[in-house]
Write a structure and sequence with these properties.
The chain has 71 residues and is of the alpha+beta class. Helix content is 46%, strand content 17%. The protein has 4 helices and 3 strands; from the N terminus they run αβαααββ.
Length: 71
Amino acid sequence: MTLPDAILDLYQRGLLSSSFKVADVYRHLRPVFAETYIRTALANYAEGGNYTKSGNKPRFRRVARGTYEMI
């Protein structure tokens, strides 16, 4: 399961609120993903991030520094 898919799963199960931080995600996914990867991937999968610039669909929206929401 990719990190964006794991975050979506947490959100759908009610374990993440509509607005979440790296620490919120890390609390649930620390055995699987490193904090540095979560921080980087959230930024890259957000609107305007590196992964989205290469044609991938954005999965998150940055609402404040270090705070994201699902799209």
